[in-house]
Amino acid sequence: MMKHTKRLFFLGLMAVMALGCQENTNKKTGKMEMKKINYGETDGKTIYQYTLANGNGMVVKLINFGGIVTNLFVPDENGKPVDVVLGYDSLQQYIEDSSYFGAIVGRYGNRIAKGQFTLDGQTFNLAVNNGPNHLHGGIKGFNKVVWDSDPFIFPEKVGVVLTYLSKNGEEGYPGNLKVKVTYTLTNDNELKIDYEATTDKPTVINLTHHSYFNLKGAGNGDILDHQLQIMADDYLPVDPTLIPTGELRAVKQSAMDFTTPHSIGSRIKQVEGGYDHTWVLNDYNGKMRLGAKVTEPASGITMKVFTDQPGIQFYSGNFLDGTVTGKNGKRYFKHFGFCLETQHYPDSPNHPEFPPVVLKPGEKYETHTVYQFSSGNNTKAK
Ligand code: BGC
Fold this sequence. Notes:
The chain is mainly beta. It has a single domain (about 35-375), classed as Beta-galactosidase, Chain A, domain 5, CATH 2.70.98. Helices cover about 5% and strands about 40% of the residues. The chain is built from two helices and 28 strands. Residues about 10-20 and about 380 have low confidence and may be disordered. Bound molecules: beta-D-glucopyranose.
């Protein structure tokens, strides 16, 4: 009897180990599907690509390198799938990328002036990687690290939990920071991103997602005809190195006014360098609300961005210059994609008047953003 139990235990253990080692998996629950494939290797770790599909024709592909969304297929008004995010065809290109395509950005998304801030009387020097400033977490930000990944699938949602331990001192930041980012695809054509973190020393944090969208499809021209609305009465003017001056300026009667829909291109020439600013979203009270809405007339695709964050960085792909080759051999030129990065204000650690970004031991950082898609033929997600 004893021998039999041992044998069963051994067989069970082998099965569990085999499952754990399994590199390519397919799962289907209700209308939801999940596929996991081996995407390559870096830093001695395996990179996986997860394909998440819902029953409405929306498909999200993401990798555990940088938490990067590599593809996001949305049906257009004729039901044809359109890949609406810029990206590459190989892991090596994501490793070499300097545009943050599709990535999770942290520990502090956006800029910190001179890479310096003071916390509880101590000055911290961060990696300076953008002119005189610190940008998007430094030289090796969260967009360039390998995350642990754990997929899940339920009848109404499918997703991946990504976790990463950012060690005390990484890129100059204090505190061991445990980060968890959950990507979820729902039946309502939403890509939800839930961010969580805890620390063992006071630190600063501002996580965001950096997909470049083009609702006509990646590589299919510029985004200047996209109709954009941003629910913000104010924006943050910046200095020549893109650090906010501290002023909150009304958008009214300026090229920054997207309180009603405008095509991105209609006034872009009035903004030196193109749009690359934080809009101060209305009604910041910790609750989710609509922050921005974009419609592309030819595909009929609409994207809505919901968030609990105080700001949104609207970046019109000004630094894309056609030098990199993206998916399917297509090159990405100036304004071929736009980002809507939900976040706290840039350089908040040096602006006590801005909403606070300090995370202390015992506290939990928790924020949520939803990108929701619909098109002419998709009445469900309107
Ligand atoms: C910033 C841009 C920067 C870009 C990097 C955006 O979030 O606002 O200034 O060049 O990221 O790809």
